[in-house]
Amino acid sequence: MAEVTRLSVEETPITVWDPVVRLGHWALVIAFAVAYLTAKEESGSPDVLHVWGGYAIGGIVVLRVLWGFVGPRYARFSDFVCGPVGALRYLLDLTSGHARRYVGHSPAGGAMVVALLACLAATVAAGIVAYGGAGKGPLAAERAVVVTTAYPEEKESGAAAVETDGSEGQESAIGELHGALANVTLALVILHVLGVGVASFAHRENLVVAMVTGNKREKV
Fold first, then answer.
1. Partner residues linked to 14 by β-bridges
2. Computed from CA positions of residues 187, 101, 75, 20, in that sequence, does the dihedral angle turn out positive or negative?
3. Across 16-40, average pLDDT
4. Hey, what domains does the chain have and what are their CATH numbers?
5. How far apart are CA 67 and CA 2, in angstroms?
6. Whether the Cβ atoms of residue 182 and residue 121 lie closer than 8 Å to each other
């Protein structure tokens, strides 16, 4: 009887992930998938779903960063962000089967959260700049002012053509950076999924279900 009581106490679930973390996580998954899969129309310009997917990602990232400072315990950066040494040590322990279980994010999981947020933010920023260069989005007005100032009517058409070519080259470079950052983010997502699978097996706990329900067992 005592053994049964002890096991039931160990398996008692507690709420770890609050609704903001859970809904933000899955909304981010959907938004990134939509944005990545609708990157270009046949004409070469961004698909409208890609654009709005990017805006959604940007909004969710901002919310998650703010929540990392004012949210509940397990949502805060102070609970799971540590140095690279701690993250590396956890990964080494995980591969050897001796990793400590954390109720919240593990050191490696915390490092992945920071890396994903940083890459997503950089990808969205580069996308907004590139979109503004095409005369669209929140930076379109600023782009128009720059063009008007740089190419007054009295300028010779040849000089304007040279300036335009340089500007187009810069826009192309920003667009390529946007695409490269998106691919880096995708690589991080794949590593994240693999890490979740390994950690779930090592700690005998379904971390995907935990991010749906918000509950994990309390016993470490």
1. 216
2. positive
3. 95
4. 13-217 (1.20.950.20)
5. 41
6. no
